[in-house]
Amino acid sequence: EDQVTQSPEALRLQEGESSSLNCSYTVSGLRGLFWYRQDPGKGPEFLFTLYSAGEEKEKERLKATLTKKESFLHITAPKPEDSATYLCAVRSSGTYKYIFGTGTRLKVLA
Amino acid sequence: DSGVTQTPKHLITATGQRVTLRCSPRSGDLSVYWYQQSLDQGLQFLIQYYNGEERAKGNILERFSAQQFPDLHSELNLSSLELGDSALYFCASSAQGVNTEAFFGQGTRLTVV
Best interface-test mutation with B: which of A7, A85, A98, A102 has the largest number of B CBs within 10 A? Predict the structure, then answer.
């Protein structure tokens, strides 16, 4: 069965303190790994799509990487406005749904 | 703005009642997905439609049903509501193709009292 596990569940960083969030997955034929940001009470906001091992995508202070078993979301010099829950999702061959992890709640302190 | 529109934003109703949540996908997107997110829970997949046809089903209760209309908007019907149905309900849409990302609406917050 396809599965996504995110760690840590929660992370507190000081402003400017870089770190990484982890997304481990098991799927039968990866058709895409997706990162989203979700603010409280809001809908998930799309960040990145990664398709194959070795692929990297960047956007401002965020950088996503992908291996055959996991993905990392690196946050460089975070700011308080980066505080949110970051969700990882996968889509596998043979299924049409997006399977989400439970997310990492990030809090960046000024 | 993702381009996915959900109405209403908030809904408060009593146990045993029935409600309908509405979703308009992004222009051109044929796929619509419904997800449920309870307090401190992850996004749980309910159901997917593609161009009017049901394509995938998740852990959707028998009291819940959905449909996608010819104009591609979708409705999620929740009946015989229970307190435990209180949650955020999200709709997402995606373009044709397997390797495409989904874009989410802002959700409907359902409170059952």
Answer: A98
